[in-house]
Amino acid sequence: MESPDPICGGVPPLVASFVDTFVDYCVSGLFFPTNPNPNPNANPNPDPPPTRFPPAARLVAIGDLHGDLHKAREALSLAGLSEPSSSAAGASRWCGGATVAVQVGDVLDRGGDEIRLLYLLHRLKLDAARHGGALLTVLGNHEVMNVAGDFRYATPAGLDEFASWARWFRAGLAMKRLVPDLPPPRDPFRGVPTSFPGIKPEFWEGLTARIAALRPEGPISARFLAENHTVLVVGDSVFVHGGLLESHVEHGLETINEEVREWIRGARPRAPAHVRGRDAVVWLRKFSEDGEGKECDCTHLKDVLGRIPGTRRMVMGHTIQKQGITAACGEQAVRIDVGLSRGCGDGAPQVLEIGSGGNAVRVLATEPATVVGRWGVRRREDEVAKEGLAMLVKESGTGLREVEARA
């Protein structure tokens, strides 16, 4: 029996790689680097990403993006991480050098650019690593909700984007099935409902696509969300979407990260307890709400930080700061969700910057905003915050209505 031709034997994987590249470009307008010499002996179970990172000479943090590609590009450019370009290719080139950047979650929902935004952040991660920098992404409550099948804040434009993605993804599956020596590709649409009684039929295709893409082990969740952090420490700063309590720290930050990753990969039947409920790390508002009779509990925050060696501040998103990035408790609590997305506030982009040693901390803001003190940023007087509308898909799956959006 003749041995297989080593040259021809390498063709099917090349075809599969071409198909993946084709689908990626059709969906996002971006090309992704490929490894021309993949290691066949690579460890199938590599070490999980670290939870703690050393101090950075320049550290920046960006708040919630909520499906707004245009405003996200503005924030990335403001932070000095990407070129101020309106093109997908230009905005995906990292120009931050050795900067370490953290995006604190809530990329999904409230807008129509969710998938393209995930692609952009992923492309910047790869380019940052090539230039000695890093872009680290944190999971928000909206990522957790979507993986769990809770689409109450998905918009019609967002559903359209997922429907478009599904058409290209299915085309890619069909092309791969034409290659006889390729293993049959996994079909993420298998078993997903295609009709939803009580919901307008024009949304069905998008809902089917969204479920298939974002459920545990789905092609979008596994690729773009599974490696995200739930909690992250860089130097003396802790990054988390909602906040941390003593019970979270005692459970272990590394443990929380790994349990959530296992769930998104499909290895756990249900979301871990620490990302479910009012006091979950992605839902907590205890250290982010000020005014109207609510104040940050500084004693409590100090105790939590004291349980994480070497940390001095907690940087959070999730709760919109209408006056811009704010700090409390002697700058131990830093809140960076400025309601940037046009689907949720349409705030002016702002970025937190922390210099070497963690001492030089400032807010980067777009003109003509005026900095008030060290933290507050006053918006233009003619700028009116716009309340967003979101789609609510009831958990029972029997209806669809619009509700006033809240972070």
From TrEMBL:
Pfam families reported in the protein's UniProt record: Metallophos (PF00149)
Top-rank lineage group of the source organism: Eukaryota
Family annotation (SUPFAM superfamilies): Metallo-dependent phosphatases
Official protein name in the record: Calcineurin-like phosphoesterase domain-containing protein
Source organism (scientific name): Ananas comosus
Calcineurin-like phosphoesterase domain location: 58-154
PANTHER family attached to this UniProt entry: SHEWANELLA-LIKE PROTEIN PHOSPHATASE 2
Gene Ontology MF annotations: hydrolase activity
